[in-house]
Amino acid sequence: QDGRNRPPSPAAKMAACEKRRAPAAAARGPGGELGGEAEFLLQAGVTAMVREALLKVLEARPEEPVAFLADYFEKLVLSGAGGEAGAEPPGLPQRLARALWYVRLAHHSHRPAFSSNVALAYECLSGGGRRRRPGLDGRVYSELLRRVCRPGPAPDEAVSALLQKVQCREHEAVPLDVFRYGVLSCAVLREFAAKAGALYDALGGRGPADKRLCQAVLRALEEALADGDLPLPARYLAAGAKLGPDGLALAMDRALRERKLSAAMSREEFLRKAAALFVAKVKPVD
Fold first, then answer.
1. Are 255 and 215 in contact (CB under 8 A)?
2. 60 occurs within a structural domain
3. Range of 138's domain?
4. Given this model, what pLDDT does residue 258 score?
5. Are 35 and 29 in contact (CB under 8 A)?
6. Which InterPro entries does the record cross-reference, listed alphabetically (predicted)?
């Protein structure tokens, strides 16, 4: 009879038990007592892991730190940290999901943390395997950019126009600086569209916004984005400063002075025009 279904022998049970006890025994001192909690944590790699997690919390400054840590450790387990050397990396969907998670760990205004996380995302997507050379091609890069934008408030036309400017050819190698620029552009567009939607809601209250007010705000927005000497994120922040309550109040006051009846502008039209202003300022990748 095949012995595959036999219960393990006492000797096998003892060997397995000793194997499980080995890590704990290694952390004990000569007298059988736990030699030192700190030493045990260092040997197990827990200290470095927790330190890295806390650094990520400080970098990202999330609204819910506990939930952030739970998600961080879950992703760490799913990423297969500590797997076999030389093993085939996880499939493309898993690597894309992990890279997207890295990209969204910190807000783009936290430049050092954001740049560090973007570099981790690039490394995650660039890893080679037995059937794949190391490096990132334009196809995977473009797919990540689409995931950064979607789902999101930016209109489809704006997303397509931006991707045409920052993406690479499918089989073209993507360097890190191009990768960082494209991810940053998509992240800023996503937030820009969200802010524009909130601005429209403030103009229209619970209904459609007056077209004159919308056009006045769009003109103010275009003027705020006109500073071409600043890099893209700084230009966006400068535009936000110029669109403060005082600047908006002046623009709206000028529009209301005409005291003429005006048609309404839909939310979709306002978002489309606002996003188009932003995309027009993004420099295409060479």
1. yes
2. yes
3. 52-77+89-190
4. 55
5. yes
6. cAMP_dep_PK_reg_su_I/II_a/b (IPR003117), DD_TPGS1 (IPR047502), TPGS1 (IPR039235), TPGS1_C (IPR057632)
Q: Token pair of 90, please?
A: 């996880």
Consecutive 10-residue runs of the chain (286 residues): their mean pLDDT?
48 48 48 61 72 75 76 66 44 86 85 88 76 76 94 93 93 92 93 88 80 84 67 55 55 57 83 92 86
Going from the C-alpha of 279 to that of each of 104, 137, 189, 238, the distances in angstroms are 21, 24, 8, 16
Q: 135 φ, ψ to 5°?
A: 130, 160
CB atoms within 10 A of CB 246: 9
**pTM for the structure as a whole:** 0.66
Could you give the angle at the alpha carbon of 23 between the alpha carbons of 22 and 25, nearest 5°? 65
pLDDT of residue 73: 75
- The tally of domains found in the chain comes to 1
Q: Would 229 be classed as within a structural domain?
A: no
Q: Is residue 160 part of a domain?
A: yes
Can you give the length of the chain in residues? 286
Please tell me whether residue 112 adopts helix, strand or coil conformation: helix
